[in-house]
Amino acid sequence: MKINVTxxxxxxxxxxxxxFKVEPQAFLQKFVDRVSFPFYYSQPDGDERWxxxxxxxxxxxxxxxxxxxxxxxxxxxxLADIVFKQLDFSHKNAAKAEFAGRKVMKQWHKQVxxxxxx
Length: 118
Description:
This protein is an all-alpha fold. Helices cover 72% and strands 0% of the residues.
């Protein structure tokens, strides 16, 4: 999915980007690329989980989404269960676990989009 977004860049963010010669678009793309429930659950020690954590934080802050969480919780629980079973206590199957998690995400997405279409 391609999207065009216009953002108001806060001064602190702009200054940091200037100081470290970071392109805001590249930074934001990298952040968005890291938002992943399957990765989040399959890499419990991974440093790349911060973007997904922030996404989850955002969900708790958005009152509109609170009402919808009941329909998402069963899928989130299934996702966590499937990923944790694949990990097998050793984390050596992280890629398998992430793949299994993506299958759940596709089912979840399909069901929610169908329900919203009604």
